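Hi, here's the filled form for the chain we discussed.

Project: internal
Contact: R.S.
Residues: 135
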Amino acid sequence: MASYHCSIVLSLAVMLSISSIHICLAARNLLQIVPTIPSMPKATLPPLPAMPTMPQATLPPLPSTPLPTMPTIPRFPMPTLPPLPTTQIPSTVPKLTLPPLPATSLPTIPTTIPSIPTIPTTMPRIPFFSPPPSN
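And the returned structure, exactly as it came back:
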């Protein structure tokens, strides 16, 4: 049963590869042929109609009454603020001292590169049984 499915899959793969070859050749042949495109006749459009003249609108005159005046905003006296308190700023800034760093040493970086082990290039011989003696 498995061989039957395998043969169907194999035949489908062969059929697809053969048909794709023919399709590629046909597409290449069509691309190499230069078709002649017929010239299209020029379409003539009728002339546009003339713009009709529109009547001019007349606007009514602006009214001649004076505009109302804005009311005046009353001015209130500005409140006086109390004086700011004066504080004595010291002229010298005290120096800060930091504690000393701990005396830990950094790890050392090796200066030599360790050697890489070599891979054997010869295959070891595998002992076989000796052949049977010939008659």
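Let me know if anything looks off before we file it.
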